[in-house]
Amino acid sequence: MQPALEIVDLQKVYKGGFHALKGINLTVNQGDFFALLGPNGAGKSTTIGVITSLVNKTSGRVNVYGCDIDTELEAAKSHIGLVPQEFNFNQFETLTRILVNQAGYYGVDRTLALQRAEKYLRQLELWDKRDTPARMLSGGMKRRLMIARALMHEPKMLILDEPTAGVDIELRRSMWEFLQELNQQGITIILTTHYLEEAEMLCRNIGIIDGGVIVENTSMKALLATLDVETFVLDITPTEKTLALNGFVSRLIDDHTLEVDVKKSQGLNPVFAALTEQNIQVLSMRNKSNRLEELFVRLVNGTNSADANNTSTTNTDNSKETN
Amino acid sequence: MSSSTNLIALKSILYKETHRFMRIWVQTLVPPAITISLYFVIFGSLIGSRIGEMGGFDYMAFIVPGLIMMSVITNSYSNVASSFFSAKWQRNVEEMLVAPVPNWVIVAGYVGGGMARGLLVGLIVTFIALFFTDIQVHNPWVIAITVALTSATFSLGGLINAVFAKSFDDISIIPTFVLTPLTYLGGVFYSISLLPEFWQGVSQLNPVVYMVNAFRYGFLGISDVSLTVAFSVLGFFIVSMWAVAMYLINKGIGLRS
To answer: Considering only residues 54 to 73 of chain A, which have any Cβ-Cβ distance to chain B shorter than 8 Å?
Structure first.
């Protein structure tokens, strides 16, 4: 089966000489839920821009469902639905008109477009706003409008560039459910996001881009399996004394908060045992950060931020570190 | 895309463009009606009655074709310039750029929208003119072809302006400093045969002279220039401006980075 997206040695040099993409190679399979992550300015939006023909590439090859964008651009475009990062609809038009016009650009006749507009506006809980000018919508509604617009021609591949930026958590979760439903229907989804929890929860495969190159391209499971150290935050009964946790790097953040770096091979039992011995009760526990976030920081910085072998102590104004 | 899907895309752009200027009719249709009414009152009735005849017709009848054409030119141009630039500025032009719409459909759609407004304003102005003078028609085909080609030419001009524009100021510079002088000096208010020989020669470099005179011929049967030359000039401008507009959109100038 041909891939949904195949990018080979993609280069982009902007006017002025900025080398945004330095040979991107990426394959996304049909039906995948793929995360394209990277820090600001890494090249994510430029890559998406080239795929959707909003940015002219300097060199390289891009195939969308087997259609080369150099030779079969219109066919390639018809497979893609784009939800861009910035609101880019006519703020003065009503929602229905925005959707029906967009469908028209893809050759969907008006009768069918009106049916689809109703379907997606209802699914995305915008039906009551169908005759409202887009500028009157809240930020979350505008994001959902852009998703509805991208679906009007029923594309095989949906590209979402930070679709949940600035969206409250309740709405974000409902958008996740909607995207998962679309993916289950067979739509390939490529997602960029700064919420790494979102990427970890939704995506099966991941590409991390930094400085215009792909620094990691693997399955989410395989990537998370490489995380050998996790940092846990323990809420403990208040203590003033220095805690001894032999074999662990730990930091007493305040008198009732302890951070402990735990290697996969170590497990948490020795931590609990050592604290119990010192008459310290663990009241609750959580991960300091999302697991993907720890890996992401490590990959884009080129350093292991939670290196368990590093047992040096550092004191800051707000923390006391013990070993 | 097939021709049927291209047709749907073209209709969508035309519908969007027509709906845009109809939605803001107070800004797009009323001002030219008021402006032209003032021209009729001041230049036609008040001053025109003292001027007497021009080209064998009373002054009001003489200036009506030119004033209609002036409205068509201004509105065709400004409709496309402001609409396309707004689409760039709000970035909703990307809705079309990411879709499989051929570039010629985008250009034709915007030009069609500009023509729709230009011709509608032309009809409104013609209707208003009926309150001030009788309008005779010498050759309706010349009227229809001239006004359609002129409207298309200036719609293309508005599109080219919008492609290069980086701010709203940039879409008012050309109308103010180029379009208005060309129109006022294009024989709307006078016959260029009244000018000294040197200025008659200079006027022949002004394309609006040919458009206004061909249009006036359609109404009154008089013209300062040959109809063949006028249509040749119109043909040259429409073909060359279409080529320029297509080149700019194909290259993505001002649209793609």
So the answer is: 54-56, 73
